[in-house]
# Entry
Amino acid sequence: MKTKLLLFLCLLVFILLFLGFALPLRGASAAPHAQFVTATPGPDGRILYTVVDGDNCGQIALIHGIAVTQLRQLNSRLDQDCTLTVGQQLVVGVVSNAPTAGPAPTLPPATVTATPVSGTTEVCVLLFNDMNGDTLRQETELGIEGGAVSLTNLNGSYSQTQNTSSAVDPDTSEPIRTCFVDVPGGEYNISMAVPDEYNPTRLLSRTVTVKAGDRAEVSFSAQSKTLTVSEATEPQQGNRSSLLGIFGFLLLLGGAGLAYYAYRSGQPKSKLKGSPLMKR
# Structure
């Protein structure tokens, strides 16, 4: 009878040990498939989140399936401690949907400066890498290679297309713009097509009026799609794996206790128990 009880306890310990190792591995492999529902993107493709009481950067990143480092990239104005205020709006993602008509960020007007050229104008366009998604160019945000920009007069008398460049002026360290020269004065539509691996963060069409002898500068922006992939599920995987690991350790500890109890139960009782020697 004791032998059967010992075998049963050993079998139970083996099952508990197996579950203790298998559950953390299974939970870790399933973690990358976690998905979270995010807010509806705005007309410019950006997904915004409004901070409420009790929020922190780690919680917001976890809810929207991104890493804290990516949240910082999308919101360059966050300080080193990632301090948040109630009502603050954060960019938590950018989708590839083309912008539609409606409310959009206030864009800086096209810069027009006088030049000594007589009879024609010059229109220079820049497509820059909007790494933080705020639609404003920072010093570290340079040009994007491979975009296609078209300049068309509204009366149909002029139409040209050129490719954008990522080159930098060695003297000023500023990105080199794509320029249309000897352009007759008038009202023009400027349209931009971004490379496939980028999402636009501004409207892709602008209208500008230039006069002969002027030089117009217009900027467009786009953000790399690699910033919106699900690499940011790593924090979720790490948290879930840690919890399952602790649960597995507790199972191992319980199994060790049962094994010790089974070992003690299987030991023969002392023959001295109840003898006159034990009563002395």
Observations:
- The chain is about 30% helix and 25% strand.
